[in-house]
Structures are given as structure tokens and as C-alpha cells.
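Review form for a predicted model. The reviewer records the input and the model, then writes brief findings.
Reviewer: anonymous (R2)
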Amino acid sequence: MNGTSKDMRTELEEWYKETVLPKIIKKFGGNCDKVTLEIKVPGNAFFISSVHFVNVKFENGQTISTFVKKPPIVLPCDMNFHLSELFGNEILFYREIASTAKRFPRCIYISENANDLKNTAIVIENIECMDYKMCPAQYDIPYNYIISGIQEIARFHAMGYLMKTHDNVKFSKIVNKIQESRYFKGEWQEIVMNIVAVRPTNYLRKNKYDEDFCDKMEKYLKNAYNGTREIIKPCEPLAVLCHGDFTRNNIFYRQLGDTLESMLVDFATIRYASPAIDLSTFLYVSCSAKDIIQNFQDIFEIYHDTLINALQDGGMKEIAAYSYDKLLADYRRHALYGYVIGVFFNPAQRGLITVDLTELSIAKMREMAESALHAGGDDFSKEVADLLINLRETGCLDHIIV
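Model under review:
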């Protein structure tokens, strides 16, 4: 079963039949005694959780395809992935947000047990059966996929702004329930980010670029983790519900005629922050340097146009707070968020270094970070350095290098 042991498969199958299948039978009809389960492991993305596709096949030929997400069986003992917070956030999203919207995968089953995480699970419909697929390119995705994704995240942000405006009490309650799931002082992410983030300034120094600029940026990037923790703090009035991990891996696409539709998945890292958190992550993790440098204005205009249209369609009358200039100014102050993530994550995403999830430890992560600092050689170093210069030229570093 694609890397899942026979015992694990049997355990998953028994759990599914006992807990999930009755919910499916109740919702869709059928007979529990006359079904077979087909279990597969996704092979085209990066997962920390234990994830499986489970197809429920009835005797009459009907098939219901589901996606099962559970905490991993084994985790490194000296690393904290904050799985309780991650699962808590995603469950919050499906219970209180997605349940009233049609643009997200339908949730079939939720089990939450903060005291016994192994009994926590989320089961949603498998949208691949609706012809949704991941973008074939794992990075540097084609421009039409960029635009489709940007339009979908604009609608997602508009949904948040509309709820914030029209039902602020409910919105505030949801925001207050969101748990920090990623940025904690003194943990392994801080080690990795701070080691790798100085790569562009190292390259620029070697090539005799503006010394004063390098000094200021190196000071910031040596403590990029602290900078990131500042960037994620909500800044009103543009703070909104963010996806939190808006990358190619969490967007599914399908072609309908001339339209490439998108659907977002994986809401474990939702947060209340600047919309630039999502935009910059998508650009610097999933898009090419060429598209970022040459096509940013077009991409941002499409984002803004889609956002405004969605706000107006949702009954928003006062839209001055969401003007192009205000959103762009907000983006400029937060763009480093996605840039730094791209610098340390892209070497792994591009296969320049290897990440073995079965052997993770703080020591291994430190080794990985040291490798990522040089992986891809001068070609990748020049790419991230050029992007840093582009951030400077477009005013995204003015608040740092003044």
C-alpha cells in the first residue's frame, strides 16, 4: 500500500469501518456489510500527517471516495510539530467556516480528542474524483495556474472580510479560537530559518553588492525568525483570515471549458494576519523568479480586482479601506514573510536536499539547514539574491533599510 505496512493498513481499515463508515451509510445509504475498502497513500506531495485515500465500494457498484487525515504514527521525540494545534485549527475551519460555504471540500467525519491525539481524525471528500488535480509542476508553476490560485485566495480573503464586517461577533469568536501552530520561540524552525535566511546576503557580499545594504539585511536575516513573528501580528484594518500555507501543494485545479478553477485544501495553519502572508508565500514558494519580477503588477491587479468584485457581490458597500494602494502598501510591509520561507524551503522542494520524515530530529534539521545554505550552488544563490534586490527596488524593504 505505497509505504504503509500491512498492520497499519489493517488498523486503519478497522477504524474506518467502525467509526467513519456508519456516518457515510447514514448520509448516503447502503449496507455496512456489503462494502470493500480500497486504501492508497498520496505520492505527489509533502505531508507531516498520516494521510490516505479511502474508496468505499458498495455491492451495487457505487463508490464514495474520501481523504483521511490523522496524526502520524511516529514522531521525532525532540521535535514539536504542534499537531494538536494544527488539527484543532483545521477542525475549527471545517466546523465553523467551511460548513456554510460551498467552495471547500465537504467534510464527512471529524473526531477531536485533545487528550489522546491518536483518536483525532478528519475525513473529507476526495476532490480528485471531481476532476480536481494538483498542478503538475511542483514549483515555478505556469502562469495560468498562478492566476487561478490568486483569484481563489482573493475570494477566500473576501469571505473573511465579509464575515468580519457583517457578522463581527461570530468572526471574532472564530479568530479567538485559532491556535498558533508554527512560530514558537526557541524551537527547531527558528534554527533552520536563521541559518538559511542569510544565503542571499552571503552571495551579494561575495559579488561586491552595496555593503551598507548587505549589513542591514544581514542583521535582519540573521534573526529572520523574530522578524517573521513580528510580521504575522495582525495589523488593522486589513488583517483577515489567512490560509497560512497557501502553496501549490494546497491548491487543486480543474479545467472547465476555458476556465481553470481552483479549490483550497489543508486549513491547519489558518491565522488572522495580513493577506500578504498568503500572497507572498504563494509567490516565493510556488512561482518562478521571472513571474515575480516581471509579472507582479499584473498578478496583484488581478488579486485586487477579484477581491473587490467578491466584496461587492457579498454586499460590501464601503470598499475604500481595500483600495489598490492600501493593499499594496500593506503587501510591501509584509512581503518578506513569503520570501524568507522560500529561501529555506525551496531547496527541499526542488530536490536539492533530501528530507527524510522518518529520521527527523533537531540535530538532523540543523544538518539539513547547513546543506540548504549551499544547495543548488551559485545558481540558486543568485536567484534568491536577485529576488531580494527586487524587493528593495519595489519598496518592500524600506522599513528595514532606512
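Findings: The mean pLDDT is 91.
Further findings: The chain has two domains: 3-125, 130-394.
Recommendation: see findings above.
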